[in-house]
Each structure stands twice: as structure tokens, then as C-alpha cells.
Amino acid sequence: MSDLDDIRPAWRSLKRKWEHSFHPMCSYMGMFPPSLPHYFIHRLTNEGDVVLDPFAGRGTTPLQACVDGRIGIGNDLNPMAYILNKAKVTPPPAATVRERIEELRLQYNPPTIDHVPQRIQMLYHENTLSQLVYLKQEFGLDDADFPKTILSLSPADTFITGLILGIMHGQSGQYLSVSMPNTFSMSEGYVEEYIEKEGLEPPNRNVFQKLLDRLRTIYKDGPPARRGHAFFGDARDLPSTLADAEETPDRADLVFTSPPYLKVLKYGLYNWIRLWFLNQEPDTVDQRLDDELDLEAYLEFMTDTFEVMDDVVDPDTGVAAFVIGDVDQNGETINLAREVAEEVVAPMMNFEVGRIVEDRVPDNEKVSRIWGDTKGEATEIDRILIAHRGEVTVRENPSGLKTKSLPGQQETLGSFNN
């Protein structure tokens, strides 16, 4: 039995209350639980090692790496994802953020909201919307000079923007909007019809007070043990991105990521409310992310991605672990992880397929469940494809994990590598 045969889905035994308080800053479609990267970080790296996520989403992997004493690096081409990663891995002191919120509150002068699209106006009380517009203007996010608008934010303003994105819509009193899901934005037409049908009135929320309340909750555990790095860009440009960045490692000991789903999620469309605050159009974001790929194009994209991994993963001991969900297409279930292993990784000279570990996602954790059984193409099975270079040392399980009687749940890999 190789060391990698000891990798088992023990991460499911950790309860949610275990996670660091920064993790739930903002919900995000397609996110995996922090216990998943935590398990792989502890088993495949040492403290001080570098952990990279090229498709970092809400920043779960880089944040968990920083919490676990590693250097977490997050990259994404979604502006919302960049903000969340930057806020989590390079956070300013809580006192600095609090002082900035108080400063903004004292300087507040209500702007006009007549120019705000009706689709946004219907969600918020006029006082709440006025405060959001003011903050958007103060942060320079109403400027058309993208991506400078998000890249030039101060650490405090980045963190506050992350907090705002997290409370823009939801179902309880901590959120700013009419009652609606907080994980994603339903379509404009659906929301408008729902508001009218239910007779909903936007609540009069004080954004500054809600930010202070949220700051207190988010900072409950303090900042992570180490600081990391966040980048806005295409994963395929990472070699030059890391090489050009100051005081940033250009090689990772572990890459842990979940690449874009195959025709499953539209991150722009499902975040049109939050993207309004960043002055981004959903269609523009979705075109930039280019997730509408068929299987052939997806495998070409993954080939490009693994060629990049060749340049950013440690050449002697590096490991790349990709969380890839099965997908249903035309009544057929596609095991994407196996497709990537056979068609992409196996032919490569510098990577060896180590294992594919199955992770069955509980139905109540799938965001796509809200569309019913016939909607969406994601299945309840994720698989972690582990590729490595050279010898792999698997360390002891992190504390708090139940590992007895866990099935191996691996696929036969003998035919993958030449």
C-alpha cells in the first residue's frame, strides 16, 4: 500500500462549528467545506509550506492554509472572489476596520439613488440603498476603470467590501435586503414577482451598524496564524503572476482546488446583486470566466491548467489535488476526474496520478438542490484527483477527525500512467 492509499474521506467527521470565523464571511456557489482542504493540508504539507488555489472562489483553501500555519495563495478571475480572498488572507487589524467604518459613518452624506437600476432599488429600503451607494462611491467602485477599482482598495476597504458582499441579501435580520436566499441571487423576474406576491417591504437597515455587528462575528477567532497572498487573474497566467509579485513564493508544495464546473454554474448570473456593488455586469463576469465548456473543451482547458501546474508546483515533492464533481449530461453520468486523469494527467511526463478519492456530498449541502431533481448537471459525487511529482510523504491525520472504519473509496489507477 502506498502512502496515498491512507488518504480517506475523514474530513466529513468535522462539524461546521470547527471552522475559522472568517470562512462564512460570504456564501459562494460551489464552495467546499473548510474541513476538506484542512485534511489535505495537514496530511500533505508542513507548517510554513505554500498552498495554492488557482480557482480560489470564496478563499476557503488559502484561508485554511493560513489558519493551519501555511502560506495560502488564492487566485481567481471573478472580482467577487478576489475581494473575498484578499480580505481573508491579508486582513487588517479589527480595530483598523472598526475605525474605518466609524469614519465612513461620520462622513456620510446621503447621495441620490435615482440612477440605481430598479432591479436593485426593489431590494432595499431607500435609506439602506443610499448608504450602499455612498460606500460604493467612497471606495471608488462606481468608477469604470476595472480592475483598478478593486486592486487599488486599501486593506480596510477591501475587508469592508467583503463584509458588505456577505450581508447584501439573505433571510434574517443581519442582512440588508428583502427576505431572499443568501447563497445566490434568484433571477430578477423571479425576485420581483416574489416580492409582489408576498407583499414584502424592504427593511430599513443601517448598513454601518450591520457592518460593525458582522465585524464582531467574523473576527471572533482573530486573524489567521499566517498571512497569505491574493491575485486577480487567469489561472493560466499564474507562473508570470507569481514571478512578478514581490515577496511571494513562485512554487507551491500543494495545489488544492476545484476547477470550474462543466456547464453547471454561472457565477455572474447567480451573483448579480453583489456584482452591482462591484460595478460589474453578470454577463461580463460569466464571459470572462468562460465556464460554458463541453467535455472536449473542458479537457483542453484542464490540459492548459496542468501545464501551468508544471511551472508552479514544487518539482521534487509537489502535489496537486483537484476536487472534480461528476456531471450528468444527456442522461449519462460523466466521471470528470477519471477523464482528466486518463486524458490529461497520465500522458504528462512530470506528473503521476496517485489516487482518486470519492467524496459523496450530502444532498442538503448541494446548492443546486433548490432547482429540484431535474435541474442542473452536478451530481452528489465529488472526486479528489491527486497527482504528484516524486516521493509523497503522507503525515498523521489532523486532530478531531474520526478515521476508524472509513472505506478506502479509491479507483484503480494502474492503467493511468505509462
TrEMBL record:
Signal peptide feature range: none
Comp. bias regions, Polar residues: 400-418
Region feature (Disordered): 397-418
Keywords: DNA-binding, Methyltransferase, Restriction system, S-adenosyl-L-methionine, Transferase
Pfam families, A to Z: N6_N4_Mtase
Residues annotated as domain DNA methylase N-4/N-6: 28-79
InterPro entries cross-referenced by the UniProt entry: DNA_methylase_N4/N6, MeTrfase_CN4_CS, N4/N6-MTase_EcoPI_Mod-like, SAM-dependent_MTases_sf
GO molecular function: DNA binding; site-specific DNA-methyltransferase (cytosine-N4-specific) activity
Organism domain of life: Archaea
Similarity remark: Belongs to the N(4)/N(6)-methyltransferase family. N(4) subfamily.
Name this protein carries in UniProt: site-specific DNA-methyltransferase (cytosine-N(4)-specific)
Native species: Halorubrum yunnanense
Lineage: Archaea, Methanobacteriati, Methanobacteriota, Stenosarchaea group, Halobacteria
